[in-house]
Design a protein that fits this description.
CATH topology of the largest domain: Nucleotidyltransferase, domain 5
Structural class: alpha+beta
Low-confidence stretches: 217-225, 237-252, 261-271, 278-318
Oligomer: single chain
Helix content: 40-55%
Distance between the termini: 90 Å
Shape: globular
Length: about 350
């Protein structure tokens, strides 16, 4: 059965943390009883107080009888007041944020959430520093500094030496997989084998830390937007701008068709090439005339028709108008006076 719940136990003094995975919440009492017996035997210490919320997995007859027999005091936080159990709540938040980042960074699906929680807890016990003592939880709880040289990035590619199957003389000896954690019962790494699709513990592996996560390792619908659109049979709509920048084609012979607008015919006719060249020969004069027309439009909205008449000039007469500089100056003075009135 798949694990659905995670039980987080934190030492109040050293902040050392343990995580346990459960299929149902009714297994909590058995796990806590076995954990307390084990930790008291290994560390030669006694559990004095247990603080938890009011959940039925903690507050039940089985746990009450066990704590009464062991002489352990029970403390409960007030309902809807998680700040009274701040140590456990903060540790849960830290683990959740860590595994979200780990799974997203290496594009792994959420089915690896338990491995990510176990790895995050393992690393944080050896890396985080407790402020009052300026030491890691591992150093406070075990009494010596931990070794960190064997740690590797979660989710990186690995090659696994196949030591489980009976191989032939010319069969391949290595499999591909991902690094998902550290073993708590032996000096080995936990590896997900992509061939067998199982998590196994092995020490004979090679880490490919610099190999990037390629497309297709995770669920396509979650990490590839193109595959998602293909599964939905979505056809992208592209904007067609040919109507604005291409000439009209004649349906009969496939040749460009001349526009029906007479004004456009005059402007595009071969005889008007000289007028076009003269029109753009003096850009400064053209800008002055247009600027004068804009002043008339903004100064008096009531006389917009008059300003439009001043701007409408035949293309063939633009060259003559621009060649006469005195005409431009007179027009500017007339417009200025019209604006002042």
């Amino acid at each position: 059965m798949h694990k659905k719940y995670c039980l987080v136990v934190t030492d109040d003094y050293s902040r050392f943390t343990w995580v346990f995975f459960l299929t149902t919440k009714d297994k909590t009492s058995d796990i806590l009883k076995n954990f307390i017996k084990e930790i008291e035997n290994l560390e030669d210490l006694k559990v004095k107080i247990i603080r938890s919320d009011n959940g039925t997995e903690f507050k039940n007859k089985v746990m009450d009888d066990f704590c009464r027999e062991k002489g352990i005091k029970r403390e409960y936080s007030v309902a809807r007041t998680p700040q009274q159990n701040g140590v456990a709540e903060r540790r849960n938040r830290t683990l959740i944020e860590a595994i979200r980042t780990m799974l997203t960074n290496f594009k792994l699906p959420t089915t690896f959430w338990a491995e990510a929680v176990s790895t995050a807890c393992y690393v944080q016990n050896r890396v985080l520093v407790v402020k009052p003592h300026n030491k890691t939880p591992y150093e406070l709880f075990r009494g010596f500094k931990p070794a960190l040289c064997f740690m590797r990035p979660f989710g990186c590619h690995v090659t696994i030496l196949n030591t489980l199957d009976s191989l032939g003389k010319f069969d391949g000896k290595s499999d591909k997989g991902f690094f998902v954690g550290y073993s708590l019962s032996s000096k080995a790494f936990r590896i997900y084998n992509t061939r067998t699709r199982r998590v196994e513990e092995n020490l004979h592996i090679g880490f490919l830390e610099n190999k990037p996560m390629i497309e297709g390792n995770g669920p396509k619908w979650l990490f590839d937007i193109d595959s998602l659109t293909q599964s939905m049979n979505y056809v992208p709509v592209t904007a067609d701008t040919s109507y604005f920048d291409s000439p009209t084609m004649d349906v009969d012979n496939g040749e460009p068709k001349i526009a029906d607008d007479p004004q456009k015919q005059v402007e595009d006719s071969p005889n008007n090439e000289n007028a076009k060249q003269e029109r753009f020969s003096d850009d400064s004069s053209t800008k002055d005339v247009n600027a004068a027309g804009q002043h008339v439009n903004t100064a008096s909205p009531d006389v917009t028709t008059g300003s439009l008449k001043l701007n409408v000039i035949e293309p063939t007469s633009i060259a003559k108008a621009l060649s006469d500089s005195s005409w431009v100056e007179a027009m500017q003075e007339e417009l200025l006076q019209f604006k002042l009135q």
